[in-house]
């Protein structure tokens, strides 16, 4: 593409060079500490080690800024009456475009450095899941004003700026932070912190000294008690991490309904996020209650919509979440407001329970899973060390009764129903999900029946839709019960395939 061909095209914001330089400088400083420690630990003099590390940092920052400069000079974009186009011209040339009528989401993100320099990343997608990212373009970065302009123009919402700042559908209640530790993320972060400490001590060359110090600290204390103390320390670390992560993700949260029919979620303390969902593409909601949140009386609200952007390996944002974990009454109220219903479908219908045969299936599955785990501990204990036998026995005492309770709870949570425009289904115990899906949004039914379900007269019916996860299941319903539910939910869709007694 010649320079003349760039007339009328826009460039990315040049402040990206400063952002890249500072980002890489921070990474270099973070890597320098363990690197210097490793050099010194291997016998090198401190001055020589520092010189090598500084030189490496200069190469890293300089090379990164140079690459970013090439990228900035190579990328151009423009918005025409019917397309968004982006061109890349450097060693090779490429050109991508999206039809404006197919654009479903324009999401804005800005990390702390980008916010400091007044720029943002704009991710534009069609909602399709094509390979190679063909259904999405990313402008990284543009000025904040340009990002807002693109969002308004590409979503055909010129009146977006007129959002009533005083009447959000939902806004942050700081009290919701109490639900942050009530998830499996807390122990996961705690164990990750312990693993990270061991890795850091290995890099610095004092891992053996750390282990010896811990062994001396707990000298004379029974092994089981030592394990419990270490787990308690990990839980405290996980608690702090979960609270910090919640604050970063959900601070400044608000959910707005903008003129023109767009739901907009804005949130984030350091990295800000703006996520848009067109109401005409909304097909329902999913009330999600992880076990810890459910015990505390909380739930979150996820959108079921067509054309939703999916999280990828580089971006873990939950683009479908409309409300973080909040009191169940609040979640139902927001769900009703989002769907423009007087009462949320998830609480407007009394769900029909499933046959007792489903309870037996769940009990066998949960207890069998625990028995399999204990068998692994027993085998490894006989082959390796008796410590694993002790751990396995302790786990058996705890997990076997817990598995029975979880199975019974999972059975109580099975249910389905129909209310107005929506079909409703519920399942799960560790993560209970109650979905309300528009009946008009169902494009097909899949009926599944394993050999074990067939023996007990059970089946699973799956509503297929173009929205959300693409399929929503009603598990372990009675054969007649499940088929009648599918037929009544969407008349005539399944009827031609049914045989009546």
TrEMBL record:
Domain of life: Bacteria
Domain YdbS-like PH: 72-153, 411-475
Entry keyword annotation includes Amino-acid biosynthesis: no
Record keywords, A-Z: Membrane, Transmembrane, Transmembrane helix
TM annotation in the entry: 17-40, 46-70, 179-198, 218-247, 365-384, 390-411, 457-475
Keyword Electron transport: no
PANTHER family: UPF0699 TRANSMEMBRANE PROTEIN YDBS (PTHR34473), UPF0699 TRANSMEMBRANE PROTEIN YDBT (PTHR34473:SF2)
Name of protein: YdbS-like PH domain-containing protein
């Amino acid at each position: 593409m010649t320079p003349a061909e760039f007339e009328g095209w826009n460039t990315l914001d040049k402040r990206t060079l400063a952002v890249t330089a500072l980002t890489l400088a921070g990474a270099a400083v973070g890597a320098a500490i363990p690197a210097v420690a490793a050099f010194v630990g291997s016998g090198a003099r401190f001055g020589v080690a520092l010189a090598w590390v500084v030189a490496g940092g200069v190469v890293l920052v300089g090379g990164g800024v140079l690459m970013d400069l090439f990228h900035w000079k190579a990328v151009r974009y423009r918005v025409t009456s019917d397309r968004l186009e982006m061109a890349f011209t450097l060693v090779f040339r490429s050109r991508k475009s999206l039809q404006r009528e197919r654009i479903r989401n324009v999401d804005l993100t800005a990390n702390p450095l980008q916010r400091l320099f007044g720029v943002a990343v704009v991710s534009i997608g069609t909602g399709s899941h094509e390979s190679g990212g063909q259904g999405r373009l990313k402008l990284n970065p543009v000025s904040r004003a340009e990002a807002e302009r693109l969002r308004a123009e590409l979503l055909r919402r010129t009146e977006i700026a007129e959002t009533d700042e005083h009447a959000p559908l939902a806004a942050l209640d700081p009290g919701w932070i109490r639900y942050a530790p009530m998830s499996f993320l807390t122990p996961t972060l705690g164990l990750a912190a312990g693993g990270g400490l061991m890795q850091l001590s290995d890099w610095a060359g004092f891992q053996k000294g750390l282990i010896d110090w811990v062994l001396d600290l707990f000298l004379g204390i029974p092994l089981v008690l030592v394990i419990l103390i270490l787990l308690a320390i990990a839980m405290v670390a996980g608690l702090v991490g979960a609270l910090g992560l919640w604050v970063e993700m959900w601070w400044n949260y608000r959910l707005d309904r903008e003129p023109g029919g767009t739901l907009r979620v804005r949130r984030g303390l350091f990295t800000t996020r703006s996520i848009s969902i067109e109401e005409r593409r909304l097909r329902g909601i999913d009330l999600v209650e992880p076990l810890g949140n459910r015990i505390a009386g909380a739930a979150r609200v996820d959108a079921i919509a067509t054309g939703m952007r999916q999280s990828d390996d580089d971006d873990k944002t939950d683009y479908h979440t409309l409300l973080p974990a909040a009191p169940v009454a609040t979640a139902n109220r927001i769900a009703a407001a989002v769907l423009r219903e007087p009462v949320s479908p998830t609480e407007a219908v009394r769900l029909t329970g499933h046959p007792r045969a489903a309870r037996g299936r769940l009990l066998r599955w949960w207890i069998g899973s625990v028995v399999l785990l204990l068998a692994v501990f027993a085998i490894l204990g006989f082959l390796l060390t008796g410590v694993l036998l002790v751990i396995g026995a302790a786990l058996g005492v705890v997990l076997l009764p817990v598995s029975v309770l979880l199975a019974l709870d999972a059975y109580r949570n099975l249910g389905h129903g129909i209310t107005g425009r929506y079909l409703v289904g519920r399942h799960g115990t560790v993560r209970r999900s109650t979905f309300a899906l528009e009946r008009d949004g169902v494009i097909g039914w899949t009926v599944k029946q394993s050999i074990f379900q067939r023996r007990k007269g059970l089946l699973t019916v799956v509503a297929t839709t173009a929205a959300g996860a693409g399929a929503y299941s009603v598990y372990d319903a009675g054969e007649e019960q499940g088929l009648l539910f599918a037929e009544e939910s969407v008349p005539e869709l399944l009827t031609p395939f049914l045989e009546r007694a």
